[in-house]
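Write out this protein's structure.
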Amino acid sequence: MLNPIPELTPLLKQLRLSGMTESLATRNREAIEHQLSHPEFLALLVQDEVARREQKKYAMRVRRAGFRSNKTLESFDQDFNPNLNRALLKELASCSFIEEKVAILIVGPCGTGKSHLAQALGHCAVQKSYDVLCYTQAKLLSHLHAARATNTYERRFQALAKVPLLIIDDFGLKPLQSPHDEYLHDLIDERYERSATIVTSNLDFSEWGDAFPNKLLGAATLDRLRHNAYRLVLDGDSYRAPRPLPEGTINSTKKQLKKEMKL
């Protein structure tokens, strides 16, 4: 029997079925060894093609999301935050909140894992085929402000408004200024009850209004964010605690400083 693979390969490439192309020889050997029927052989090839396309879509969604690092729930040390509501975290990881079209608000001191947790939930969403965008508050509003100057504001705004999950990291780290507070209000208002949003902040929930120069605008924005939102409070020590110095380092450093002062 003639080997059909040399003839099939260019045809599969022409049809953009590279998943089948890559596994054709392997699947052909398996079919011969296990005496698979033609439909069984074809099913394996189709599965390979579907798997390749899903992996390609996943990689594209991760790249488009703009995650700052590969933070996942598996790499999140839940023991570091002993008071963390693990049952709630497990529920949020199912991404049902995206279908609910509500917000997740994560607060806690610096270094307790807020950004990690937000991006980890973002990865969960990507794995479930949701599109995600991830920005710090400063970068998000800076992009919108820059879009005003290039007449691309409406297109940029709609992309942010319609994405199924938007992550806004470090809310309130820098006080909002006009017109940035208006951009944020318009975006939250447009997404309200239409899409899901994750917001992280070092501020306690009671302090969020202080980030807005216009208190009325701030109240309206936060009212929409808080409605039916899930809340996660992280506490404990910072992940970013410095490494302890080797024994004797402090004393030797003091001696060196004294020596330099005498000179």
